[in-house]
Write a structure and sequence with these properties.
Elements: E1 5-14, E2 19-23, E3 28-33, H1 35-40, E4 51-56, E5 63-68, E6 74-78, E7 86-91, E8 95-101, H2 109-121, E9 126-131, H3 139-151, E10 156-158, H4 167-174, E11 178-182, H5 189-196, H6 207-211, E12 223-225, E13 231-233, H7 236-239, H8 279-286, H9 291-310
Parallel strand pairs: 3-5, 8-9, 8-11, 9-10, 11-13
Antiparallel strand pairs: 1-2, 1-4, 2-3, 4-5, 6-7, 12-13
Helix pairs in contact: 2-9
Bound molecules: guanosine-5'-triphosphate, magnesium ion (MG) and zinc ion.
Length: 311
Amino acid sequence: MTAPALWRGVVLSGTGGVWRVRAQDGSEHDVTLRGRLKQETRYDKLAVGDDVDIVEDASTGALSITFIHPRRTRLARRAPGGARGERIVVANVDQVIIVFAIAKPEPHVRMIDRFLVIAEGNEIPARLVLNKADLVDDPARIDALAADYERAGYPVHRTSVKQPRGLDDLRAVLINRTTALSGPSGVGKSSLINALYPGLNLRVGEISESVNKGRHTTVGAVLVPLPGGGYVVDTPGLREVGMWGLASTDLDRCFPEFRPVLGECRFQDCRHLSEPGCALRAGVAAGTISSARYESFVKLRGELEEDEKRF
Ligand SMILES: Nc1nc2c(ncn2[C@@H]2O[C@H](COP(=O)(O)OP(=O)(O)OP(=O)(O)O)[C@@H](O)[C@H]2O)c(=O)[nH]1
Ligand SMILES: [Mg+2]
Ligand SMILES: [Zn+2]
């Protein structure tokens, strides 16, 4: 009797029963979760992005997942209907790249901050792309928008697909990493990916649709292999994560530039809203903390406190 062939792969997508797995040689296969593993772990414990071991049954040729390697990171959201339990939307995301346009559509700072908080809440490094740089004559306009984020420690890429500009640097940070690419509609996410990888002809955000033309209906996030190594995850992955699961009291730590002053408020449980002796508000008044970023904090804190009343 020959031992079953064992190989390693990455889960690209799932249908709720059959999983698409990419082997290290680049080949893709439909596999199922081995019965024993299914019982041991709750079903949804396997996630897109998981690094898995696969065995091939010597007689039937059927492929099954026998082991899920420990995850580096997870993008998780609250399980539907319950305050307890999380559902992993994507595993092993190495970075979040948030794309906005400098114009058409106008960037919305509250929304940029919301995306960054989601990344911070999941402890995944984030970068910001300001695309359509060709649409503004004065580079100081882009710098003004970038300033708050660069001060907070986020790398900011100024790009243009039309010019083109900033594309080589962006390609360099995608190589050999798994990236959740997110941002509002019309900012140029698909255009950027197509400019970076001309052969890929990918319409980010519509990936699930194209996969659905196949035999199975894809549920949730889809990992797309990049030429040269690495993966991008289509946008719904991050959008559906939201801020679920983040405690309102942890929000302040999701603004990296707030962290140095967080221990300095008069009250240990300071909400940083109207409490006397708040170091954060003192920072805003002194101009060392961005008032725009602080306003985003206040808005998101209100939303999280509302959520907590409901659960
Ligand atoms: N001027 C200019 N236009 C751009 C640039 N990048 C993309 N566009 C245009 O912006 C429009 C939207 O681009 P998409 O790539 O479809 O945007 P998207 O982010 O993928 O949008 P969704 O798929 O709806 O989420 C298209 O008409 C692009 O040609 C750029 O750098 N400069
Ligand atoms: Mg698109
Ligand atoms: Zn405070």
